[in-house]
């Protein structure tokens, strides 16, 4: 069965290009188009779509507002943002987007986004083994973060923890959260041995842990050393290994 897709973009050439690219995939059928946020919401409330390709900046409501409005509906579609603006990726994943494509992109990149959307797009990484790993840290000790047309190199010592975000990862720094195009598993392989996988969705810099607090049924909560005293959960399975590493 083909997935029903809605294209939302205020520029006709962009909609035409998306129709062309989507036409190369047999499992997707474009059944609607909207030129602004208001039209998109009308269509989304009148028909059950499986997938929405959504621009960010449009008249009649931004793509972020549209995604937020429909994400709790009974038949909420998977949302892929397709935009010329690279600066809204963190906001996009906060409204449960499956992927974020920056124009121009090709059929191969779109295909990966479609696969992620239509295969379920799990939020979390596969559960890792709590056994000690043999880390292969990046020789520079830095993680590239795309910010607009710039690439900022974030020193791993500045990372408090990382969390999974649908095949990407958020890096929590002292004063901000940034999105990187690496999965949590990929980050774990790149970062040094002082990073510990506390949960399928979290990777923590142990150098920034201030306190360990007991939680339900043998699990732990880590209190970080930032101003907000951020907290990160440690699953019961990984709590045993962490206690062993710390000699507790």
What would you say about this model in short?
The chain has 248 residues and is of the alpha/beta class. It is built from 7 helices and 15 strands.
What does this structure look like?
This protein is α/β, with parallel strands linked by helices. The protein folds into two domains: 3-118, Response regulator (Rossmann fold), CATH 3.40.50; 142-246, LytTr DNA-binding domain (OB fold (Dihydrolipoamide Acetyltransferase, E2P)), CATH 2.40.50. Helices cover 26% and strands 31% of the residues. It has a five-stranded parallel β-sheet. It has a five-stranded antiparallel β-sheet with strand order 10-9-8-12-11. Strands 13-14-15 form a three-stranded antiparallel β-sheet. A hairpin with a 5-residue loop joins β13 and β14. The radius of gyration is 20 Å and the shape is elongated.
List the helices and strands and how they pair.
Elements: E1 3-8, H1 12-22, E2 28-34, H2 37-46, E3 51-54, H3 63-70, E4 78-83, H4 89-94, E5 99-102, H5 107-118, E6 142-147, E7 150-155, E8 161-165, E9 168-172, E10 177-180, H6 184-190, E11 195-199, E12 202-205, E13 209-214, E14 220-224, E15 231-234, H7 236-246
Parallel strand pairs: 1-2, 1-3, 3-4, 4-5
Antiparallel strand pairs: 6-7, 8-9, 8-12, 9-10, 11-12, 13-14, 14-15
Helix pairs in contact: 2-3
Keywords: Phosphoprotein
Domain Response regulatory: 4-118
Modified residues (4-aspartylphosphate): 55
């Amino acid at each position: 069965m083909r997935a029903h897709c809605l294209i939302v973009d205020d520029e006709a050439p962009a909609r035409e290009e998306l129709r062309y690219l989507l036409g190369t995939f047999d499992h997707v059928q474009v059944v609607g188009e909207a030129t602004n946020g208001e039209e998109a919401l009308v269509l989304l409330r009148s028909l059950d779509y499986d997938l929405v390709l959504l621009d960010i900046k449009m008249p009649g409501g931004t793509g972020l507002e549209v995604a937020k409005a429909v994400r709790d509906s009974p038949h909420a579609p998977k949302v892929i943002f397709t935009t010329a603006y690279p600066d809204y990726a963190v906001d996009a994943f906060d409204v449960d987007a499956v992927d974020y494509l920056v124009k121009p992109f090709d059929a191969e990149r779109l295909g990966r986004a479609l696969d992620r959307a239509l295969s379920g797009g799990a939020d979390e990484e596969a559960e890792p083994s709590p056994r000690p790993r043999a880390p292969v840290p990046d020789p520079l000790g830095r993680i590239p973060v795309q910010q607009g047309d710039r690439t900022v190199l974030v020193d791993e010592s500045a990372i408090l923890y990382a969390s999974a975000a649908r095949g990407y990862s958020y890096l929590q720094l002292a004063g901000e959260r940034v999105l990187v195009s690496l999965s949590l598993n990929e980050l774990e392989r790149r970062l040094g041995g002082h990073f510990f996988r506390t949960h399928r969705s979290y990777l923590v810099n142990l150098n920034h842990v201030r306190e360990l607090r007991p939680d339900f049924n043998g699990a732990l909560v880590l209190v970080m050393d930032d101003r907000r005293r951020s907290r990160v959960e440690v699953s019961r399975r990984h709590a045993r290994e962490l206690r062993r590493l710390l000699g507790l």
